[in-house]
Target: Outer membrane protein assembly factor BamA
Amino acid sequence: MILKAYQNSINIKLKSTAILLFIIVLIQACSSTKYIADYQSIVKKVTIDSVDAKFEEQAYNYVQKDIRPASKLSIQVPLYNLFNTKDGRYKTSDIKPFGTPPAILDSTLVEISRTQIQKFLKSKGYRRADVKAAIKVADKKAEIVFTAKPGPAYFLDKISDSIPNANIKNLYESNKAKISHLHTGMQYDEDSLTYEREQIYRIMKENGYFYFLRPYVNFDVYGAEPTSKTNKIDLNLNVTNPNNGEHRQFNIGYTHMIIAPNPDGFPDSVRYKLNKDTINGIIFTDFSKRYRRNPIVRYDFLKQGDLYDIRNENLTYDRLYELNIFKNVKIDYYRRDSTSNKINTVIQLIPQKVMSNRVEGEVPFNGGTVGFTIGNTYTNNNIFRGAERFELQVKGGLQSRIGNGAKPFSDIYQRDFSISSSITVPRLMIPFYNPVLGGNGMPHTTFASSYIYALQKDVSVRRIFINSITYDWFETKSKLHSFTPLNFEYRFGYLDPNVDQQTVLNNLYYSTLLGRKDLTLGMKYTYTLNANKLNEYRSFVYLRAGMDIAGNMLQGISGLIGKKGDPANNNPARILGLPFNQYMRPEVDLRWYKHLGGDRQFIARLNAGVAYAYGNSVLTGIPFEKQFFAGGSSGIRAWQARTIGPGNYDRGLLRSDTLRRAFFGLDQLGTMRIETNFEYRFTVAKKFLGATLKGAAFVDIGNVWNLRKGESILVANPSLDEQTIFRLSKLAQQLAVGTGVGLRYDVQYFVFRFDVGLKLKDPQFAGSDQWVIGKFLSGARDFKNTYNATHGPDTYRFIQYNFGIGMPF
Model:
């Protein structure tokens, strides 16, 4: 009782602190003016009047940031006030990196803003634009009004060009329809001229004009003077020649690829020791003696005799960096003499450290358990001297029951151990076929093998061997294909002979899953769209859809050799003395990323999957590891992973304390999953302990279900089995709903994440009792005491904490 009272005291203090902090922030939101001097004012509103609606947002961007007021719903200024005020004034030193300071009126910045808005309007065709600024101040609060008199818009009347070089003229004319934004009758816009210049420069650099520069493209504008009596403009495009003659096209000569002796770079003596052997137009010199020639030169796309193309240069940069063995890539060119139309390429490569070692760990816990997981990953990025990546990971962990005065790790009920290795080769290794890919991304072939050991105290032991070959390649930069033609799994599990037989009978299906011995031979395919945009602030749709299918080939083989078996009567066909699995498992992850301006983003996500056993597995069902679970740091974050469902499953219906304790901590799984997540992301502080602190608010909804009867955890009780089956008519009753907030500490290469999830609706209860948020707000202690008495050793937690590395999705 003393422990419970102490825990309740902590909860009350935490809630009181949160409420107090909320009140302080609200008070600070209304009190910024008291921290400034009497002669100062805080800008509360900025208005831009009489500007065409389509240009309003762009015009506002020219208002200087220091005089832009924060949004009324933003807590950035209140946070700043909370941490950066002292003795009734804003601090001038020791500024804490929280929030954003208020917008203090500065007449100089107002004038700069007015001038910039006026220039912007003129660049958009309002050549006679005039902008005035007015400032209204009352009670140390300021409003700025920019009033524009744009005048008439100017439009293009005649468009001509002067391109003396016939070849360049032809290039421009042949590409004009695809690249040009200029046309007669359009409103004059300097951005369109800049775009035209950039497109011409790009085409020139893609067609051999190595020495072409942007200033060679310029425009003559006639009739654009504000004093002009007409609002029509004539435009002439010029592509001028250099002073020493006409523009010339260049071809690639030979390429000299040089690798530095170590990560420190090139010593001065390197130039005296260069290799002179040319193979297929490439001279390869490796001072480090670490790399084989072919795996490296394969990704030099600047081929001898080809017309110079800047796209091939960029492609070479991208692929050599993607080999992940060079920390610096530099491409230079030189000509042997001024009359030659060939440029020779020099590619300088500085290697990075080949080997690395990473140790990771986590401490998962809830109200009744505590544990840890620790792993070590060794990586060698050049194990066979051809940029092959070798990875060896060893990982182990355990979970222990706590409570009733027991010391942590005195009652360990779960142990896990795994060891895995993989070799990834930067090309597609396909027998009798050598495809040349890499134009859109680095292709890979991965050979992987792993061993998994899992012990559930007094229940079961599982051992799994997995071997696979996977090909990854890019169709475009946004479309990734992953195909595993061979995925072999050998599964060996057995039940503990000391397990309670009544436990086995009441959980027959679960026990069968854990104790089965079988093998799987199948293939997988995954298609991913727009993964390259995940770290960008833009609006797009992300898709990851895959299919895992197994057993069909073995089914055909068993038929050919006369060992069909009788799966419907629990006599499956066997290969090498073991039954084989036959199933299909489609899964889809669909997301909509909506950019809301700045660092703000909204994400809506649907993650769904189905695992369907048939043929040789029609009775034995889906393997344990292939089933779905809900909850966790990347799912429904108000629940710990594998503790929701299936359906309305309620572990409290196991009336025996012995049964509940025997199955305490066992995963709650299903053969179908539907999860949806809605998350709003924003920046809290751009400079926080040397990194960016970001925030998130989210709502998660979903569950897992079984597709058929007999797949339930409680098949001994048909009425309970029915509660786990997916029924569209009961969908609303069977959904778990959680909400929460989170922080992300972004150090550029890693994002450390902390989320706090709060249960709103729990499907293990019935009717209005599912809305447990009501119990959290009132009567939480009595509710938890009642739950613990009927579900022990399980305990109820309204709040779940999640730690992780990387974004949840």
